[in-house]
Hints:
This protein has about 525 residues and is an all-alpha fold. About 75% of the residues lie in helices and about 0% in strands. The protein starts with 13 loop residues before the first helix and ends with a helix. It is found in: Cell membrane.
Amino acid sequence: MPEGGRPAGFRQPPRTTALNATRAIGRGLGRAATGTARATARTGRFAATKAHAFTHSGGAGETGLARVTELHASHTAGDTIMTLALAGTLFFNPQTAQARGDVATFLLLTMVPFVLVAPLIGPLLDRFAHGRRWAIGTTLALRAFLCWVLAEAVDTDSSWLFPAALGCLVASRAYNITRAAAVPRLLPAGTTLVRANSRVSMAGVVGALAGGVLGGLGMLAGPAWALRIGFLVFVVGTVQAIRLPSQVDSSAGEVPIEDTAPIGVRPADVPRRGRRPDAASSLRGTRRRWTEEGAGRHTPSEHETLTVDSLGPLGRFRRRKQAIPWPVLHAMWSTGGTRVLTGFLIMFMAFLAKEHPIDGFRGELVLAFIAAGIGVGNCLGSVVGNVVRDQRPERIAMVSVLAATLSCVATGIWYGVWTLVVLGLVQGLSAQLAKLCFDALVQREVPENVRTSVFAWSETMLQVLWVVGGALGIVLPLNPYVGFPVCAAALVWTVIMAARQRHRAVARRANTQPAG
């Protein structure tokens, strides 16, 4: 036997062999876990660095636009988690079809007061310090609370399931309105409103992907745990909202829309074909030219005092409409058509997929296909919108809603999974494209001192049209060959309303031109 060695026939006890093998496996697993953790940490740091560079680029970090972008990512992530958690509980239980009446009642009780009060929120918040930051934070905090309530309601099958879910929906709409006024106030030098909103939209896409991952992991333990994860995400969003820069609350230098003279259509730097550079710049019948001072104070003539009431909500509403250039109103109605389709799809398909499943596909899978189509369409819309937004944006917005209308009609004729996927894709593309074109028109046509007011007011009107679409999705019979054509008719109505804006502008211009 060699020195220090073992006999040739030496064998370790089985217990020692097992312990050594266990230690070797443990060391291998430990090294693998350590390597995975390090790789994950490096990937996380790389992703965080890239995200920070994206949100803070172009001076967005200095103005505070980066914080709004990050906040919107948290908002979208929370909404995605909540949607995933409720997809298999709220809309896919045996009582869902019979609960449409309850859902309609809750929608009426929660949405209608919200729609009536929303136009008053902006002016009210402008009168208080820190108003908008706390308003945005309140919408997120409310959803955090309701997510916790929903988690308990899912576990106990509580009757609070429907009102809490619709409360989250209302809070999400309110968030969009209150956030709308923040972006124009935080624009960095040299950054357009379109580019800023496109950046915020892309952050929302990233947030939706992150929310899908977190929600999917939570769903492994059950919908209640996914909702609790959503609660944590909304808490983070609440803190982010409170930490927004003070410029979000400041309305210094801004003028309410109803207190301004009609805003003329801004003449382009390069004269249009057949138009003199010094030609009157408005189709709204105003003699006010575009000046560096922006919108002037409203000084109604004798004729205007007969048609514009200076007192009351109706008078303010009329004045706002008269002050906004026709291309902006034109694009707002076109964008509103895509909002009608969005609200309709959410409510109508949630019940239709359960009541009339498509052969070979579960309702949850159909909704997942539609959501995927909408997500891809949104991404394509952001890319295309940044390329074509300056090519007659009002026409592009009109083409977008017409494409959505045709897709809706096609779905009503050839109802099936693939037509629904195409509808989702076209809806996402048209909604994003129309919104970017609308932002471009607000940036181009509206003076800076009323831009925030116009943007917030128009977002309120778009949310009202979303409610109209959602109401259609609830009250219409669960028949795709009836529901989709009726929704297409509603989209045609928005197209007609958009076309009327130019017609009215031309008529007013003709009436105000001096004879001879």
